[in-house]
Amino acid sequence: MPKKNQTLSDIHPAKHTTPDAPILLLFRRRHDDLWHSTRLLGGYEASRIVDECAARIKNLQGIDGRIWIMLNQVLSILSLEETGDPEKPFMGFFAVIDPNDPVVEEICQLTDELRTAMDLVQTLRQDDCARRFSFAA
Question: Which helix (H) or strand (E) holds 64?
């Protein structure tokens, strides 16, 4: 599992022609930001999801089902979907962040980037599947 400040330069999305490249690139460029944002919103347990996800991405150089689940967990934390559930610890973390803190805007931007990358991966995977199917027909 990589440390929060470990570089993920071993992830080379430019060398990939796979549909997973948007997520690979996002983790290469924004791993530290993802880690810090999830820690702010969900504590160290939440940031461990980012670390585990990054380690799996680095090892696989792609995205499997487990990574996709973790990406959805990270997106859920960043988009504050978990804050309404009093059984989850995330509400306490979110409540201590000053709404005027510039980190709030950074978290919003990062959330949008992750959501966009995930949507793009899904679209590229569908296109790739359709292209493979059309060649087989």
Answer: none
